[in-house]
Design a protein that fits this description.
- The protein is of the alpha/beta class.
- The chain is 32% helix and 19% strand.
- The protein contains four helices and seven strands.
- A hairpin with a 3-residue loop joins β4 and β5.
- The protein starts with 12 loop residues before the first strand and ends in a 12-residue tail after the last helix.
Amino acid sequence: PARQIGHPLSGKVIALLEDQRPVLESLRALFEALGAAVIAGESEVEFLAETSKLERAPDLFIMDFMIQRDVLASRCLTLLRQRFGYSNVRALILTGNPSHPELRNVFGVPVVEKPLSEQALKKIIAALLGQIPWDSSAFA
C-alpha cells in the first residue's frame, strides 16, 4: 500500500493477523488513513508468508489471539521472534476471550480485549510515534 506522506504514521509498517475480515479491514483502513503501510493476513500461513518477505520487522504486529479456533497467536509470535529477533518484535495481542488459559503463556506482549478501545488505540499510536515509551502493561 502507498504510504501517505505527512500523516502521523507515515513510514511505519503495521502487520495485522485477524481472521474476522470486518475487523481486519477496519484496522487496515484506520492505519492506512494514518499513513502506515499495512501487511495483513487472515490465516497464520498467509500472515507468515507476507511477513517473511520483509527485510526488517514491522514497527508493530497486531494479532488476534485465536485464529480459526485452533491456531493461537503465541505460536505465530514465537516464529516471528525467531525470524526477526526477540527484541525486534513489538506486538500486541487482541482477544475476545481474556480468560483463555493459554494467554498465561504469552510473555512481554500486551494483551488487549476486543473490541479495541479508543484509549488503547491512542496509546498504541502514541507509542508508535515515540511520544510515550512502549510498555507492555500500558495498553490493557
